[in-house]
Structure prediction request, 328 residues.
Amino acid sequence: MRSFDYQRAGTLEHAGQLVAEDGAKAIAGGTNLLDLMKLQVETPETIVDISRLALDGIDEVDGGGLRIGAMVTNTDTAVDPRVRADYPMLSRAILAGATQQLRNRATTGGNLCQRTRCYYFTKTDQPCNKRDPGSGCGAIDGVARLHAVLGTSDQCIATYPGDMAVALAALDATVDIASPNGRSRSVPVRNFHCLPGDTPWIENVLERGEIITSVILPAPVGGRQVYRKVRERSSYAFAMVSVAAIVDVANGRIARADLAFGGLAHKPWHDPRLSDLLVGKAPDRALFAKAADLLLEDAVSQGENAFKIPLARRTLIAVLAQATGEVS
Ligand code: SF4
Prediction:
């Protein structure tokens, strides 16, 4: 690991000023950044410790819903009784990720900003447009088992690795962001992460000096919540495919169907066409198969990850069957 300066931010304004400096990186739990620094994938000149900012606590907001502070650990979110009661999908998604030790350190804000686990990204002697723009993409025609099948580009086919954000996308949560000029803004989680396009090193909409302050969960809605993660072993593994779903059935018809997917793209994947297709229809296997067709109509595999397309299809159909009670 290369040497670096350490600064501890005392206030949000101070943190914004420090993080806006060239070569500065914010650190909270450090569960991803420190690993990448040891591998020399990340080589910040200064790390700005924001872990002691007053961005903790889970509070109720006007009109229902919860504000989860950016420094709240994944463990504290997952075990919060209000989260477990009203947003069980979020609790399950968090508990499906990483290990207990990592969840005890990982924060809400940091989890949203975690970086891909592409093998070529973490090996500095390999080509990777995300780490070293213009060097090429080793994963295309290479080891691509974990890689994306939706929203890829000829520059990058990496996946966003997290679980929490997939549930937040299905819940239509919002990210609150503080800017160094004292202003703040809010971005739906569904729009927070970026597709790779020609700039795969840009992974989210945060601008220089901006810091996530909280995540807002909307007021709870009716329906059954499911988070299903398919992975190669039962713990401490990233999703090959994951599905987060809130589905409500009333009078024999689907009244709500909010879905998001992990393991398929450079961001938690949300396709509003699925809700349009499903809502108002009677739930059955033929409808679920149509939803899978729609989800995957533009899917492109890279050899090793071809299995993800039928796996995503089967997983979506199974989740819809479970969520609607149409289990065969
Ligand atoms: Fe780098 Fe993206 Fe290609 Fe992986 S898929 S090697 S992260 S450019």
